[in-house]
Each structure stands twice: as C-alpha cells, then as structure tokens.
Amino acid sequence: MSGLVLRLAPNERVLINGAVIENGNRSNKIAIKTPNANVLRLRDAIHPDSVCTPVTRACYTAQLIITGDIDAEKGRDQLLTEIEQLIHVFIDPDSRRLLTEAGANADSGNIYGAMRRLSALLPREARLLAVS
What we know:
There is one protein chain. By secondary structure, this protein is α+β, with helices and mostly antiparallel strands. The protein has helices spanning about 55-65, 70-85, 95-110, 110-120, 120-130; strands spanning about 5-10, 15, 20, 30, 40. It has a three-stranded antiparallel sheet with strand order 3-2-5. A two-stranded antiparallel sheet has the order 1-4. β2 (about 15) and β3 form a beta hairpin. The N and C termini lie far apart (about 50 Å).
C-alpha cells in the first residue's frame, strides 16, 4: 500500500479532512491515497479546554495545522516560535533533543511528527508544574 497507512484499533476514531471516521469492532488498516490529506487520530487530539500550559499550547497549534483549522504557513511559524520558547524552559538533554526534532519536523512540514515529539514532553511538563 502506498500513501499514509493507518492501523486502527477496534472502535478507534480518526479525523480525515474534517470528517470523523470510526472503525468497526475489529482492528483494521486503511490507506489514505490523497496527498496532503488532513489526518488526526482522535486519541491524539487535545480538547481546546485542556490547552492551559505551554506544551499543550504547542501541541494544540500543531493539531490545528493538521486539521486545517489554521493557515499552514502562519501556524507553522507560530509552532516554531512556541518550540523556541520551550527550548529555554526544558534544559535536560532528552527534552532538548525532542524539541530540536519537533522543530526540524515542523520546519520540514511534518507537523504530525512535531506533535508526537511535543506530546512526549507532556508528562515532564506535568511533573515540573507539580513541583512548582
């Protein structure tokens, strides 16, 4: 199969170009053949009410780009700014690596990859905020 291949768990939902698609009772795999389709697994989605920290804000910006809810170029610039700000907060080498990779992904147009790296920082951010 060429294009984007999604492996969906039973009853898993995915957003494709604004339409929510739900898998049936069995695991399945689907191929998205349309180039530049906006695809987001809903298990990865952040609800707007949950956007209350710098990392969730960056993840949400990436999500809006992926879903096509904001202009891709302006959104990418905003996402890169948010990542740059996070680099000043997360000083450990692993977090810096994730942020560097997120920035490189965003810069090359791989917004989903950027969002995945940023999502890896969510537990670390929660620990930092719990200590404060």
